[in-house]
Amino acid sequence: MGTLLKCYKPLFSIRFSSFPNSLHSVQLRTHSFNNPKRRNPIRRCFSSLSPSSRPLINGTTLDKMDGNRQPGSPSSEMWLHNTMSKKKELFKPKVEDKVGMYVCGVTAYDLSHIGHARVYVTFDVLYRYLKHLGYEVCYVRNFTDVDDKIIARANELAEDPISLSRRYCDEFIQDMEHLQCLPPSVEPRVSDHMPHIIDMIKQIVDNGYAYRVEGDVFFSVENFPEYGQLSGRKLEDNRAGERVAVDSRKRNPADFALWKSAKEGEPFWESPWGPGRPGWHIECSAMSAAYLGYSFDIHGGGMDLVFPHHENEIAQSCAACKQSNVSYWIHNGFVTVDSEKMSKSLGNFFTIREVINLYHPLALRLFLMGTHYRYPINYSDVLLESASERIFYIYQTLHDCENVLSQHDKGLQESIPPETLNVINKFHNDFSTSMSDDLHTPVVLAALSDPLKTINDLLHTRKGKKQATRIESVAALEKIIRNVLSVLGLMPTSYSEALQQLREMALKRAKLTEDKILQKIEERSEARKNKDYKKSDAIRKDLAVVGIALMDSPDGTSWRPAIPLPLQEQQVAAT
């Protein structure tokens, strides 16, 4: 058997930056094989997060509290659930301190939906946390821009398939920016990698794992005894028509296409088997090998990719190179609607654009992180409203901190009281323990409650305002929360800007203007002066029904977004 190393060294000699605590980068040059007019963007492998992202308390970084972490050296053990072994395993990269990660990207023929958002938020969290631990990460996420679905959609719109796909690739990138997903190190596209795909298919054929039928090439699953090792499926379970394409020319119904002969009106490339295009599964095998080599650390995607896509990837890659090996296969659970998987084929999906038109993108990100990544999450208005209310509370608390600290930027003492330090240490431990235990983000989000409550007590209660080192405590608490939010991808550019956006979206959902709310507040104040409490309560309730909460204080009445009253009642009934 030939080896992938012979034909498939990584396309680039990917070097990791030697500056682990900076945003210095290494540029990767890409080659456009089929479209010389396409201008490929500079690709980068980013190093670790900057020093400012590491929590600082009393001049000591929190990672030092873990025990003398050295820059660029991973700070703690991490466990990840491996779909291959069906259990959590201690993460150990193949190359010390460096991680190669490939995540299957979108097939770009339409706007992406919330199910896609969950996949890429999940792996963005993993990417960020690996960097936080001190690993140098090369993250590869592809675009499928040659596929049956793309061709069908392009024919509907009378548009060139590659142009249509390029347009939706750009739309996807915008969605990821809104969700604060970091750009991967490399974003390869199928149409740019035909030579690599064709070479891999040739190697598979030469090694006796594939056969030609007219202008098509099929992988022979019977020639690969390990087929089914990832999904646990047996060959007899793979009936034609059930996620396996029907074709009477196949030797086994489970055989799958590596190369498809050209058809009228479809894009094609020349190959040893005649003009045509690649099958879906071979694309990721070839691109992951091109950028990461035949053996790398993490391969990820949604649970629906376990079979057949990732099962077929394993078969192809091993057929091309017997040393092919991925250490950890990681898959996230579905987003469901009424207990059914959200998907375009079922027509029960909501696009990312539709949701962020009404809810802040970071509220959507928080919602997606509020359930452990391996479990299904049910899409509902009440959960999105809850996430929106929660993130408003977080940013409002930190904005209050910012206002207070801006008045005390000099003369702060270095020490903070033991009770505050205990809150900080507990939060830090909860964060490190939970994230290192298979990215348990719901526990981290819940753990925010104590430091946020402590800040509000220090800022707004009589007892808190009397504390001698109150400002120092607030500064330390704000810093650790801010840095944890940065690792989670939940840190806004500006607290005040995010709060204003959250208010505007709440008004949009309520179908009200701020002037109308202020008018209602004035009417309510007048009613209270006249002791017309029935009218006063009715105004408050009317606004609560549409998600506007009124807050009375000695300084007057203000408003904030809240979960609409009917949804609150629905929550109570459900529990």
TrEMBL record:
Alphabetical keyword list: Aminoacyl-tRNA synthetase, ATP-binding, Chloroplast, Ligase, Metal-binding, Mitochondrion, Nucleotide-binding, Plastid, Protein biosynthesis, Transit peptide, Zinc
Pfam families xref list: CysS_C, DALR_2, tRNA-synt_1e
Q: Which domain of life is it from?
A: Eukaryota
- Cell location: Mitochondrion; Plastid, Chloroplast
Q: Matching SUPFAM superfamilies, A to Z?
A: Anticodon-binding domain of a subclass of class I aminoacyl-tRNA synthetases (SSF47323), Nucleotidylyl transferase (SSF52374)
Please list the residue ranges annotated as the Cysteinyl-tRNA synthetase class Ia DALR domain. Answer: 430-499
- Which GO biological process annotations does it have? cysteinyl-tRNA aminoacylation
What the entry lists under SMART domains is as follows: DALR_2 (SM00840)
Obligatory cofactor(s): Zn(2+)
Question: What's this protein's family per the entry?
Answer: Belongs to the class-I aminoacyl-tRNA synthetase family.
Which HAMAP family does this UniProt record tie to the protein?
Answer: Cys_tRNA_synth
Give the protein name, as stated in the record.
cysteine--tRNA ligase
- What is the species listed in this Swiss-Prot or TrEMBL entry? Gossypium tomentosum
